[in-house]
Amino acid sequence: MIRMRGVAMFAVLALAAPALAQPVEAPVDPYAEPTKPAPPKPAKPAKPARPAKPAKPAPAPVDPTPVDPYADAVAPTPVEAAPVDPYAAPPPARPAKPSKPAKPAKPTKPAPPPTTAPVDPYAAPTTAPVDPYAAPVTKPVAPADPYAAPVTKPVAPADPYAAPVTKPVAPADPYAAPTAAPTAPATVAGRIDVAAVQGLLAVQNLDGWLLADHGGMNPVARSLVDATGAPSRRWFYLVPRQGEPTLVVHASEVASFAAVPGKRVVYTGYRDLDPILKKLLKGKKTLAMEYSPRGALPSLSRVDAGTIELVRAAGVTVKSSDALVQFSKASWGLDGRKAHYLAAHHLTELRKDALALLRERLAANQPVTEREVADRIAKGMATRGLVGPAPVVAFGAHTADPTYAPPATGSATLARGDLVLIGVAGKVDGGIYAAATWVAVADAIVTPRVAELFAATAGARDAVIGLIRDRVKRRRAIAGWEVDKAAGESLLISGVGDLVLHRTGHSLDVDLFGSGTDLDDLEIHDARTLVVGTGFTIGPGVYSPGELGLRTEVSAFLGKDGLEITTPAQMTLDVLIAQ
């Protein structure tokens, strides 16, 4: 028995010995076997889950930009070492690997949305919107392009006005200011730029500009202050050197001045008005008004003597607003300049049409009257949206009258050999006037007398244009009287100086006879200088009473780069009958 037990024990030990020896190698084999079925190596094919990021190789060829954000996410894949530890002990440590994709939370830093769909969206979108999506920052860049386009729009107007948008620049810096006025409605009353005016007041050492009107007597004030309707009672608008403007207006007309910026003081009768004005003018020593000492500038003398006395009674010295008017009402500005060129174009076409009508009637031996031609031009103006005075159409001896207008009945009928004078002036509503005068002969030849007078007037016109351009080129100021004197001297040299009846030209603005400098040393002595940004006519004329008259008139604009002639200048007499 004992022996058998020993044998049995030996047998057990013998059997146990291999089992005990196995465990030494067993950690290798048993785990190697489970790993074969448990596809730990398929687990490495689980890294082909990163081939899901082979979507990453797709971006990589397109642009490294998407690769970087995802290369960072891949960088955590040193977790290959992590699979070793989790597999060595706890296979479930593998879920810890997906927990590391939580590090793609770093991609969520750039933009949480991309983390949700960076893979698929970028696999395809990267082809088209690569740059925009490579970094969300480039998304703003996409809108930046559409906005870059609009930015060039302002640049386009800028070229026309520095050539034309810098035309605020063209009319010099002082006129760039009026152009900016519309953008700041809080400082604009009608066509007046309050900020620019206050700068001029400081330069001239004036305490303010007092605009006053009663029943439309002061067109300067009415043009500059934007009142609706037709105010008929007295109103005052004070622009101080500093601070907010103040409007004094009758209680019944407050609504007419709703768009005018500044404080409002309302009165109902003369008992209210006197103390209100005294309070308004308190502390003001010198104010500008539309006043010209001794009536030297009739176009500027718009405030009645009684109102001037009322202001002086408050202890105020009244000075002329001529310089202020030059830089406000008489200044064309960008919009005014464009409107003027449009009017000039229409007037030129209407003049051509009128001359064509005369040629047709003469060729067909059919009658045509002054009134018929004038009505045709007036109808054309209305059709083209122009407003202005009745056109001047004169035949024969009627040309000797500078202000002739054909009557409704009894106007002259064109005869062969007649001198024809056509004068037109107009503007688009609210714009700047243009004016031009043309002469022709209802014949195939021109008489020596007519040729002599035309050469004299055209020569005087060209001499004046040359003088202004020379002064501008040398940066020297030129006064209105100097221009008129030069034209008179040219006509005198031509031997027709005694036939002059009117000044060489007048200011053009929203009024045909504007408030700027006139080219005049005959009717008045206009000592004001021509100002950049303003316009005027140049039209010397000669008239032989009862015989004939000639005038060659053009419109002109004085820009910072020189003098521009805005309507065609007639160089030769038109003959209306072909030879």
Concise summary:
With 579 residues, the protein is α+β, with helices and mostly antiparallel strands. It contains 22 helices and 19 strands. It folds into 4 domains: 29 residues; 97 residues, no CATH class; 154 residues, Creatinase/prolidase N-terminal domain (Creatine Amidinohydrolase, Chain A, domain 1); 243 residues, Creatinase/methionine aminopeptidase superfamily (Creatine Amidinohydrolase).
Structural features, described:
The chain is of the alpha+beta class and about 575 residues long. It has four domains: about 30 residues; about 100 residues, no CATH class; about 150 residues, Creatinase/prolidase N-terminal domain (Creatine Amidinohydrolase, Chain A, domain 1, 3-Layer(aba) Sandwich), CATH 3.40.350.10; about 240 residues, Creatinase/methionine aminopeptidase superfamily (Creatine Amidinohydrolase). Helices cover about 45% and strands about 15% of the residues. The chain has 22 helices and 19 strands. The strands form five sheets. The protein has a six-stranded mixed beta sheet with strand order 6-5-4-3-7-8. Strands 9, 10, 11, 12 and 19 form a five-stranded mixed beta sheet that branches. A four-stranded antiparallel beta sheet has the order 13-14-17-18, with helices on one face. α6 runs antiparallel to α7 and α21 packs antiparallel against α22. The chain starts with a helix and ends with a strand. The N terminus is likely disordered.
